[in-house]
TrEMBL record:
GO terms for molecular function: 4 iron, 4 sulfur cluster binding; metal ion binding; tRNA-2-methylthio-N(6)-dimethylallyladenosine(37) synthase activity. InterPro entries: Elp3/MiaA/NifB-like_rSAM, Methylthiotransferase, Methylthiotransferase_CS, Methylthiotransferase_N, Methylthiotransferase_N_sf, MiaB_methiolase, rSAM, rSAM_horseshoe. The lineage of its organism: Bacteria, Pseudomonadati, Pseudomonadota, Alphaproteobacteria, Sphingomonadales. Belongs to the methylthiotransferase family. MiaB subfamily. It catalyses: N(6)-dimethylallyladenosine(37) in tRNA + (sulfur carrier)-SH + AH2 + 2 S-adenosyl-L-methionine = 2-methylsulfanyl-N(6)-dimethylallyladenosine(37) in tRNA + (sulfur carrier)-H + 5'-deoxyadenosine + L-methionine + A + S-adenosyl-L-homocysteine + 2 H(+). [4Fe-4S] cluster 1 binds at residues 25, 61, 93. One of its GO terms (cellular component) is cytosol. Catalyzes the methylthiolation of N6-(dimethylallyl)adenosine (i(6)A), leading to the formation of 2-methylthio-N6-(dimethylallyl)adenosine (ms(2)i(6)A) at position 37 in tRNAs that read codons beginning with uridine. Residues 16-130 form the MTTase N-terminal domain. [4Fe-4S] cluster 2 binds at residues 167, 171, 174. This is tRNA-2-methylthio-N(6)-dimethylallyladenosine synthase. Monomer.
Length: 454
C-alpha cells in the first residue's frame, strides 16, 4: 500500500498527537476514552481543539443504514488542503464488519481495528509506520480490559464503565452479535477496581454499560454468584460515589433483584432505559425480541411499584418488514400507556447479513417517514408532560458542565433531565439542590434552593 502521503513516521518515533472521534452508542464513547488513555500512557497527547493531529482514530458505529458510507466520507475529509493527511485508523463496529475491505476501498487508511482488539493499537501504529498491514479484527474474550491502563483523574464528574460486552439475543435487525461477539461479563473485581479508580479521580456518577447490561453475572469476592443488582449494591458502598445508572437493558434480564434494588438503593437513580421496539406481538416475534407486549408491561408495572417516581425510556423501530398500519398503531398505544419520559425512535434500516434484511414486504421510505413523525410527536408529548410535572419541585442535581452564559452551569436530575442554573458560587462536580422553575421539551431551568431536596 502506498503511504507516501502519510506523515513522516520514522522507526521509534510515532505520531505525537492524536484525535479520537467516536460515533454512536455510549460504549463507543467509553472505548474512545480508553483508547485516549492508552495512547496518553504511551507518551502521546490529545491534539488541542482545532489543531491538526498526527493520528486520527474514527471510532465507528454500524447500527444505522449507510454507516459504512459515512465512514468513507469521513476518511475523505481528512486529507488536508496541501495534500497531506494524518495517520488514519478506523476502529469500532464498522472496522469489525468490513475488516481489510476498508483499506482496499480507502488506500489512505493505515490501521483497521475492531472493538475487541483496540488494546493492540500501539502495536498496529508501529506496523503502519513500517508499511506493514495493520488490521486486527480478532475477538478475544475480555483480554483487552486487562491490557488497558488504570483509570486516572477524569475531566468530568460523570463516567461510563463497561461491565459486559456482546449480545446473545440475535434480534433479526441487529448487527451487534456479529460486531461485538457473544455476551461476556467482566469480573466483579475488575469492575470494582475500575470504579474505585474513577471515584478516586473525581467521578461522582457512574453509568454501567453493556449491550445487555442487566444480563451481567459474576462471582463476588466470596465466590457467590451475583447479578447486576448485587453489583450495583456493592458499588453503592464506595465512598464518594453519589449516583449509579445503567444502560442498555433487555426486558428478559430484568430480574426480581434488580427491580427491588430500584426501590431500596438510593444511589441507583430512578431512571430505566428498557427498549421494547414495537407495541405489536407479531412484529416482536419477527424481530426475535423474545418478550411480548404483556410481559413488557408487567415488568413496567413491577418497576413502578418498587419505585413510583421512576422515569422510563425506550427504543422504537418503525417500518420493520411487513409492519401493517394497524400494527404500527399498536406501537402508538404502548407509548401512550407507558408515558415515557424520553425515547429513541428510528426507521428500520436493513443491515447486511441480518435476517430482517432479506425479509419480504420491506416498507417504503415514505411510509416509514410518516410513521416516525407520528411516533415522535407522541413521544415528545409525553416528554413535555414529564418535564412540566417537575416544575415546582425541589431536587438535587450534579453539576456537569458550563452553560452558555456567565455563571451558568448545567446538571442532571436523578431522572436524567438537564437543568440550567445560574450558580457562580458552585463548581462542576458539586451536588446542589435546585427549585425547578420552568420546563421545555428537552431541558429544565432551576434556581438554587433554600430547601432540602426530598
Amino acid at each position: 500500500m502506498n503511504r507516501n502521503d502519510a506523515p513522516e513516521l520514522t522507526a521509534g518515533k510515532g505520531p505525537a498527537t492524536f484525535q479520537v472521534k467516536s460515533f454512536g452508542c455510549q460504549m463507543n464513547v467509553y472505548d474512545g476514552e480508553r483508547m485516549a488513555e492508552m495512547l496518553g500512557e504511551r507518551g502521546m497527547t490529545a491534539a488541542a481543539d482545532g489543531a491538526e493531529a498526527d493520528l486520527v482514530i474514527l471510532n465507528t458505529c454500524h447500527i444505522r443504514e449507510k454507516a459504512v458510507d459515512k465512514v468513507y466520507s469521513d476518511i475523505g475529509r481528512l486529507t488536508r488542503e496541501d495534500g497531506t493527511r494524518p495517520m488514519i485508523a478506523v476502529a469500532g463496529c464498522v472496522a469489525q464488519a468490513e475488516g481489510g475491505e476498508i483499506q482496499r476501498r480507502a488506500r489512505n487508511v493505515d490501521i483497521v481495528v475492531g472493538p475487541q482488539a483496540y488494546h493492540r493499537l500501539p502495536d498496529l501504529i508501529g506496523k503502519a509506520q513500517r508499511g506493514e498491514e495493520a488490521v486486527d479484527t480478532d475477538m478475544p474474550a475480555n483480554s483487552k480490559f486487562a491490557a488497558l491502563p488504570g483509570r486516572t483523574k477524569q475531566a468530568r464528574p460523570t463516567a461510563f464503565l463497561t461491565i459486559m460486552e456482546g449480545c446473545d439475543k440475535f434480534c433479526t435487525y441487529c448487527v451487534v452479535p456479529y460486531t461485538r461477539g457473544a455476551e461476556i461479563s467482566r469480573s466483579w473485581t475488575a469492575i470494582l477496581d475500575e470504579a474505585k479508580a474513577l471515584v478516586d479521580g473525581g467521578v461522582r456518577e457512574i453509568t454501567l454499560l453493556g449491550q445487555n447490561v442487566n444480563a451481567w453475572t459474576g462471582e463476588d469476592d466470596r465466590g457467590r454468584l451475583q447479578g447486576m443488582d448485587g453489583l450495583a449494591r456493592e458499588l453503592a458502598r464506595l465512598g464518594g460515589l453519589e449516583r449509579i445508572r445503567y444502560t442498555t437493558s433487555h426486558p428478559n434480564d430484568m430480574s426480581d433483584g434488580l427491580i427491588a434494588a430500584h426501590g431500596d438503593e438510593p444511589k441507583l437513580m430512578p431512571f430505566l432505559h428498557l427498549p421494547v421496539q414495537s407495541g405489536n406481538d407479531r412484529i416482536l416475534k419477527a424481530m426475535n425480541r423474545s418478550h411480548t407486549v404483556d410481559s413488557y408491561l408487567r415488568i413496567i408495572e413491577r418497576v413502578r411499584e418498587a419505585r413510583p417516581d421512576i422515569a422510563l425510556s425506550g427504543d422504537f423501530i418503525v417500518g420493520f418488514p411487513g409492519e401493517s398500519d394497524a400494527e404500527f398503531e399498536d406501537t402508538l398505544k404502548i407509548v401512550d400507556q407507558v408515558r415515557y419520559a424520553q425515547c429513541y425512535s428510528f426507521k428500520y434500516s436493513p443491515r447486511p447479513g441480518t435476517p430482517a434484511a432479506d425479509m419480504d414486504h420491506q416498507i417504503p421510505a415514505a411510509v416509514m417517514d410518516e410513521r416516525l413523525a407520528r411516533l415522535q410527536a407522541a413521544i415528545n408529548r409525553h416528554q413535555v408532560d414529564f418535564n412540566s410535572a417537575t416544575v415546582g419541585r425541589t431536587t438535587s442535581i450534579l453539576l456537569e458542565r458550563k452553560g452558555r452564559y456567565p455563571g451558568q452551569l448545567i446538571g442532571k436530575t436523578p431522572w436524567l433531565q438537564s437543568v440550567h442554573v445560574t450558580a457562580p458560587e458552585f463548581a462542576i462536580g458539586d451536588m446542589v439542590d435546585v427549585d425547578i422553575i420552568s420546563a421545555g421539551p428537552n431541558s429544565l431551568a432551576g434556581e438554587i434552593s433554600r430547601r432540602k431536596a426530598a
